[in-house]
């Protein structure tokens, strides 16, 4: 596919953020392989089309990815760039993540209404309305800021910012991912960065993931050049945590992770919709020092690839064990109740 003078078609959602992300990936690939021609193929997904229903109510896990994956399967496109957090933890048959790029700041941030006299959530007057459609954000923030009101806000980032700044609008502030704000060039609109102690981020937040067909070896080879190892390890741990909990984007599950020289550690939690019930915990997995491992094992025929695979499975284990720990502490009834309530939630105006 990716030979001399060849063409690769790249699928993307139509939103400005999606286009910025896709064009960024294309620009990186173009530098490595100037002879390849990349063609952008844009389409709308269910998440873009259904704007009058709360995200969590639509009940479809692949809200922002399904139509693009169908195009991949039909070979109408060769790869698709996603925000990793929108990519379900189980991909359709025949699809793989060909690359995970270096993560940007994974935190959430507060954007105040234009001209606001306030600069952080703690200072807002009681009853101030905060716009977010993320149950993960509202559950954690309700717990930490019980005086504030949380209300759904739908639409792409441009629409949300317009709704926030509307002089007759109801929102005092909105919560968005720093990564999205930064890619849109709006970093100067951030008033407050939310630390894990007040709001842990979503699984995969801040990282881009590129999906392609499992058997498309040439595209896989090309994409692998964009892989960022530390991000891969962190997001493997985070995604395996979410996979075991079976939480899609519609339940309040949040994490924070870090890779150290010795290994990886992950903090995670699940919340009830109103934030009052939660379980959280932390887990670490120590990787065998890869250089030592290489020295010890080279003569028994274990390759660097195998050591890399062991490290990856260590990251996977880290997430899985944390999920199991939370389940043992009572996560399942909390998640079950959250899922049932999110489906019954009031329609958004
Ligand atoms: C998912 C959620 C949201 C997006 C739920 C969550 C936020 C919805 C909302 C799974 N996808 O985070 O708990 O705020 O109402 C989305 C954004 C980005 C990727 C925008 C954002 C950009 C950042 C990134 C929407 N998906 O979260 O502010 O690359 O992580």
Index terms:
349 residues, alpha/beta, D-Maltodextrin-Binding Protein, domain 2, five-stranded mixed sheet, 12 helices, 13 strands, binds ligand DPM
Instruction: Report the order of strands and helices.
Output: EHEHHHEEEEHEHEHEEHHEEEHHH
Overall domain count:
2
**CATH hierarchy: architecture of the largest domain:** 3-Layer(aba) Sandwich
DSSP strand tally: 13
How many H/I helical runs? 12
Class by alpha and beta content: alpha/beta
The proportion of strand residues reads 15-25%
The N- to C-terminal Cα distance equals: 47 Å
CATH level 3 topology of the largest domain = D-Maltodextrin-Binding Protein, domain 2
CATH superfamily of the largest domain: Periplasmic binding protein-like II
Helix content: 25-40%
CATH class group of the largest domain: Alpha Beta
Molecular shape: globular
- Biggest pleated-sheet summary: 5 strands, mixed
Provide a quick synopsis of the model.
By secondary structure, the chain is of the alpha/beta class. The chain has 12 helices and 13 strands.
Can you offer a commentary on this structure?
- The protein has 349 residues and is an alpha/beta fold.
- The chain folds into two domains: 7-104 and 203-340, D-Maltodextrin-Binding Protein, domain 2, CATH 3.40.190; 108-194, D-Maltodextrin-Binding Protein, domain 2 (3-Layer(aba) Sandwich).
- Helix content is 38%, strand content 23%.
- The protein is built from twelve helices and 13 strands.
- A five-stranded mixed β-sheet has the order 2-1-3-10-4, with helices on both faces.
- Strand 1 (7-13), helix 1 and strand 2 form a beta-alpha-beta unit.
- The longest helix is centred in the C-terminal third of the chain and has 25 residues, at 304-328.
- The structure holds ligand DPM.
- Ligand DPM binds next to helix 5, strand 8 and helix 7.
